[in-house]
Amino acid sequence: MTTASRLKSVDFYRKIPRDLTEASLSGAGLSIVAALAMVFLFGMELNEYLSVTTTTSVIVDKSSDGDFLRIDFNFSFPALSCEFASVDVSDVLGTNRLNLTKTVRKFSIDPNLRPTGHEFQPGPATNVIKHDEKVDEESLEGAFVFTSDNFDKYAHQFPITAVNFYAPWCYWSQRLRPSWEKAAKIIRERHDPEMDGRIFMGKVDCTQEGDLCRRHHIQGYPSIRIFRKGSDIRSDHGHHEHESYYGDRDTDSLVKTMENLVASLPSESQKLALEDKLNVENAKRAAPSAGGCRIEGYVRVKKVPGNLIVSARSDTHSFDASQMNMSHVVHHLSFGRKLTPRAMSDLKRLIPYIGNSHDRLNGLSFINSHDLGANITMEHYLQIVKTEVITRKDYQLVEEYEYTAHSSVAHSLHIPVARFHLELSPMQVLITEQQKSFSHFITNVCAIIGGVFTVCISDTVALYFYQYTKLWLYTCTIHYLFPCGFR
Ligand SMILES: *[C@@H]1O[C@H](CO)[C@@H](O)[C@H](O)[C@H]1NC(C)=O
Ligand SMILES: *[C@@H]1O[C@H](CO)[C@@H](O)[C@H](O)[C@H]1NC(C)=O
Ligand SMILES: *[C@@H]1O[C@H](CO)[C@@H](O)[C@H](O)[C@H]1NC(C)=O
Ligand SMILES: *[C@@H]1O[C@H](CO)[C@@H](O)[C@H](O)[C@H]1NC(C)=O
User: Fold this and answer.
1) Interval 356-372 mean pLDDT
2) I want to staple 202 with a disulfide (CB 3.0 to 4.6 A). Which of 55, 144, 236, 328 is the partner?
3) Which 3 state secondary structure label does DSSP give 450?
4) Using CA positions, which residue lies closest to atom 5 of ligand 4?
5) How far does residue 120's CA lie from ligand 2's centre (Å)?
6) How far is the CA of 79 from the centre of ligand 3 (A)?
7) Cα angle vertex 133, ends 129, 134, to 5°?
């Protein structure tokens, strides 16, 4: 045998002479069915290859020490004045940041939660407010006592009425009292209400005249308000604000302020030193005209259990815990960096549960109703879980935070607050988008084509194969059974 014919003997693909093949109708039918089956199976396989699968695993949070969590919020407090509202952050590691102002904006709002003006400006930080050093024990009674019955009458009668809203139990009111009485006496001597009739100083005891104080949105004691012709609403570019005094509380400063107010009246020709005027103008600032406040902004906190607290706070005012109303509406609360809407919808298509907790608290109101009683603190307990998604596109890492919220009200021993207790889960969810292997796809396609072709191959060839295979098997068997040669 020549080498060529030997080689030929190992040919798997023996050719049948073309004359021996014959196209049959049944064969054609079978071929069409086979082609359809192939196309169908190939389509399924391609779809499977192109579709996206994800694997989800729960692992220990990989955040390192020093990573911060950003909290975006937007709350409305219909019964907490921006004058006193303070946002504080504390955590178990001892961080305690009070009265955040840099990243937090405040807007005065009316009871319908609509803003009444532009952003609330707290004014320049006041250092320690001066009070009279020595307190006269002999009780001076210089200031007129207003009640709800006579308030409107007197306030309307005078071009300027300065009113000290106070509470007798309050420490700061007690310290203000002597200087206020003395100043009132001096002013009354200089500007006799009967003769001069331009200025009038009085006081309102808020423990007696609760309604009157509520009507003027008095939340901290003492509040000094300036009324002009019965109204303390100052129109400023179409926005309304109370005129309020935040300056020093010693007799001299008070008298100076009052003289200044008188001097600012149009009919007055009296002149005051310029620097005095500036000093006094600085101390006189606008207080919000409505009793509510919208607080929006963001804070960055360490990833440890902590609190975000909104409360009333002031260095020179006292608050009546039983009158505080920390009702609030959560417009928005979210954690982590905000995703663009497109990235968000992409992600949502991939993992439907992402972003569902975004409106867990959003839009909910927490109202302190009358039947709950006094000293009500509003608590929210939030548990936050980090979700990381590694997408196939650029192997991008997307961070997302989901949370659960439980809310309750509690009677507090201290000043009522609205507290958001934050707790970050030590476990995180890792979602990885799976890349399908191309070689796997190709193998599957070959299997489909080959398999279908083999099953449905034209009957002639099948017959040939059948005969050939049988022959081959037969030969093998003989060789195996009779290795000694049976030729
Ligand atoms: C906060 O919520 C109010 C009320 O829904 C909305 O008018 C305001 O634009 C929000 N502020 C921000 C910064 O989104
Ligand atoms: C918060 O801080 C600002 C600026 O430091 C200050 O003007 C304001 O009075 C403070 N507010 C409270 C409620 O303490
Ligand atoms: C607290 O304020 C809310 C909203 O203004 C009001 O509906 C509620 O009655 C107030 N609660 C009390 C105890 O005054
Ligand atoms: C509310 O708190 C104050 C002290 O902050 C306390 O004196 C008062 O008894 C409390 N009232 C109630 C009803 O618990």
Assistant:
1) 76
2) 144
3) helix
4) 414
5) 11
6) 7
7) 150
